[in-house]
């Protein structure tokens, strides 16, 4: 197939390009000028320079590539995970405006399939249950998280309701593994070894992770799978009170300290408290059945 990837030099985009090319696909990666373009060229991908916020530039880029499939892997994430909430407004805008530009161009130019990156960790589910693909994103989440979920939820609805596109929504868990924050030499490990890790309150928020290579394999499979929503997550959703101490042991870091909800609200804000006390895990049965997802066990679960 001819495949156009927006965000082709990111944590998902670049390994996705690397996986697609040996399968015989023609890949065009949309990126900004810089070293990322050289990485795409050395893999054998075509490079398209376009600003996601410029609808005419996006239209021209997709028109030139003439793809069968457009994949949106755009993100605006900081190098330092401590800055995630500060960066979230830019990321939200990227999904709201950049995503709208991509899907509009794809529809106008007769693209067959549109695949978008979504979130598998902001989903509604009853206490003690896992969220399946019918779950909605948590529009009532506080602060910047709520702005993000409402924007991404509207984007999901737009993709799935398109009359001309086969829409696929991939709700990924938190990425771990090479090139991510969650690896032995990654930013989260560095925080842990510096004694900066903390469990807020009961740490009962349940997180779903996914190894980056498993996420890539599922994304490749989504090229010709049944359209719809897929939770691309592993089999080991765990509360923060379990996975964070195990992660610390895995990277030879001290035990995370405990912080009360009241103190965390003052020092870290309501979004941080939400991450540690309100998130729910997701189920992956549909991705296993339709995408062949075979996620490896969480690498630090038994550390």
TrEMBL record:
GO CC terms, sorted: cytoplasm
Alphabetized GO MF terms: aldehyde dehydrogenase (NAD+) activity
Any matching Pfam family: Epimerase
Taxonomy, superkingdom: Bacteria
Family matches, as SUPFAM superfamilies: NAD(P)-binding Rossmann-fold domains (SSF51735)
Gene3D superfamilies the record matches: NAD(P)-binding Rossmann-like Domain
Protein name: NAD(P)-dependent oxidoreductase
Organism field: Sinorhizobium mexicanum
